[in-house]
Specification:
Layout (H helix, E strand, L loop, with lengths): L1 H11 L7 E6 L5 E6 L2 H5 L12 H13 L6 H11 L2 H7 L3 H10 L3 E6 L2 H7 L3 E7 L2 E11 L2 E6 L3 E6 H7 L4 E6 L10 H4 L30
Antiparallel strand pairs: 1-2, 3-8, 4-5, 4-8, 5-6, 6-7
Length: 226
């Protein structure tokens, strides 16, 4: 049990961006080398970070293909191809559009379209999707990676994988438009455990009882225990 606590503390204290190892004492005087990853690095394990202010669209596409359809592609490749074929002046000012995304995916053999459907339809179909949200005065592309227990998991190219309550997500998803790949034999990844690791739910059930410390017993110590 003591080792379990040490491992949990080590995971919470991982402040470096990249994974590292932390040695913790084990039974018999030996040590265990426990890999530690910071929450910051975990958030970008299955979400690709955007490299430019206006490249959330290309990062969202790269995230969708790489982590949900098993087709590895970098944000840079997506960006360069969509930028070369799009209205560059408009892209620099407003970012990529869903038409830019549709053209890129079509060139890769994917049929994709925008649909105005309730969120529950997407959840029932177990399909990841690219959606445009409005936060803090800006429009921004994110990937819906899953939904469970009243929360929606999104891959945000700016801040990484994060979860919002369903009501909070509905509030920023003003267009109600979702961009989905369809007509493919591939089964996309949706609601993966690996994605949810970046947004764990608080273990409220294992917290200290509201009854206080009335049920806590202290050991009876003898004179030689001090």
């Amino acid at each position: 049990m003591a080792i379990d606590r040490l491992v949990a503390i080590a995971m919470l204290l991982g402040a470096a961006q990249h994974a590292r190892a932390l040695d913790v004492p084990a039974i018999g005087g030996s040590q265990l080398s426990v890999p530690v990853a910071s929450m910051k690095s975990i958030k970008f394990q299955t979400t690709l970070r955007q490299q430019y202010d206006f490249s959330c669209g290309s990062a969202a596409v790269a995230t969708l293909l790489t982590h949900h359809y098993g087709v590895p592609v970098s944000e840079r490749v997506v960006f360069e191809q969509m930028y070369a074929r799009g209205d560059q002046r408009k892209i620099r000012k407003e970012g990529f559009s869903m038409l830019d995304i549709k053209r890129f995916l079509a060139e890769r053999g994917f049929q994709a379209d925008g649909f105005k459907l309730p969120l529950q339809k997407l959840i029932d179909a177990k399909l990841p999707a690219i959606v445009l949200v409005a936060e803090k005065g800006y429009h921004h592309f994110v990937v819906i990676k899953g939904a469970a227990h009243g929360r929606v998991l999104v891959g945000d190219p700016a801040s990484g994988t994060r979860a919002l309550t369903r009501s909070a997500f509905e509030k920023i998803w003003t267009s109600k438009l979702m961009f989905v790949i369809h007509g493919t034999a591939a089964t996309p990844a949706f609601n993966r455990v690996a994605d949810w690791r970046a947004a764990p739910m608080a273990p409220l059930g294992s917290g200290i009882s509201r009854d206080g410390v009335s049920g806590v017993t202290m050991p009876k110590l003898g004179p030689g225990d001090y």
